[in-house]
């Protein structure tokens, strides 16, 4: 508040300092970010003042008695400074604190076109909140499964009372996909947990990917599928096969020992 008052008329908290006030981002302790809705950049020790005369009045609110940019504008400003991971955390925190949902944020961006940070923020949201159609999902996922050494899966079948996206009966592997990474309701999350718990209790291996991962992180999906397949196959190795493997190792070791035993 001292920093805002020191900058005079039209001053509001913004950027990282606004993020800290909203509880969605860490503040740079050595400097306070202030934006001014006038053409003036006062020099104040410990204050980073920005002249922003075009900042709309509807993008300003009061939080804890301090003039500050609204959550949507704060996230747009943060998008110009934070790393992708830090920005993603800020979006999650804003959703967690019920400040603005991802859908609400996407809608708000339509009214802040052309501003720095909008494109980067929209790109991050699009990557994690879009949903593939069932046909597009299957078209993208099947090659990843094949590249991981998996046979063709069953799709949209009922397993343990739930419809699953992909199922490998012989491996006991279930793969579910989520079309929305952010803003999942408590009921939806509880149902997802119940599904995974039911599959696990039945001796199956449940995996869950987002549609964004299938679309934008195919190598990650392929690696997880391959490693999971290897673990399942190793776990399901029958005792007789283990005995045969052990006997084979013993024969090789014995033959090697005989070949190096000195004569006489």
Could you explain how this protein is built, in words?
The strands form three sheets. The chain has a four-stranded mixed sheet. A three-stranded mixed sheet has the order 1-2-3. A two-stranded antiparallel sheet has the order 4-5. The protein starts with a helix and ends in a 5-residue tail after the last helix. Strand 4 and strand 5 form a beta hairpin. It has eleven helices and nine strands. With 264 residues, the protein is an alpha/beta fold. Helix 7 packs across helix 10. It has two domains: 128 residues, no CATH class; 106 residues, VSR Endonuclease (Endonuclease, Chain A), CATH 3.40.960.
Summarize this structure as a short list of keywords or feature phrases.
single chain; 264 residues; alpha/beta; Endonuclease, Chain A; 2 domains; 4-stranded mixed beta sheet; 3-stranded mixed beta sheet; 49% helix; disordered C terminus
């Amino acid at each position: 508040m001292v920093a805002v008052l020191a900058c005079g008329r039209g001053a509001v908290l913004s950027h990282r300092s606004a993020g800290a006030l909203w509880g969605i981002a860490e503040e740079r302790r050595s400097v306070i970010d202030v934006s001014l809705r006038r053409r003036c950049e006062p020099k104040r020790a410990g204050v980073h003042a920005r002249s922003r005369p075009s900042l709309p009045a509807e993008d300003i609110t009061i939080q804890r008695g301090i003039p500050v940019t609204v959550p949507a504008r704060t996230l747009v400003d943060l998008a110009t400074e934070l790393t992708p991971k830090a920005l993603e955390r800020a979006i999650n925190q804003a959703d967690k604190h019920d400040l603005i949902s991802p859908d609400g944020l996407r809608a708000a961006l339509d009214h802040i076109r052309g501003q720095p940070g909008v494109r980067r923020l929209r790109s991050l949201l699009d990557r994690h909140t879009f949903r593939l159609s069932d046909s597009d999902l299957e078209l993208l996922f099947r090659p990843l499964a094949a590249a991981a050494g998996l046979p063709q899966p069953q799709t949209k079948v009922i397993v343990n009372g739930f419809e699953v996206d992909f199922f490998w009966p012989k491996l006991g592997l279930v793969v579910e996909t989520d079309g929305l990474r952010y803003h999942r309701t408590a009921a939806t999350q509880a149902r997802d947990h119940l599904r995974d718990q039911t599959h696990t209790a039945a001796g199956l291996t449940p995996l869950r990917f987002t549609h964004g991962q299938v679309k934008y992180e195919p190598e990650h999906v392929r690696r997880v599928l391959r490693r999971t397949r290897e673990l399942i196959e190793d776990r399901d190795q029958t005792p007789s096969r283990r005995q045969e493997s052990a006997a084979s190792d013993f024969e090789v070791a014995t033959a090697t020992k005989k070949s190096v035993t000195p004569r006489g």
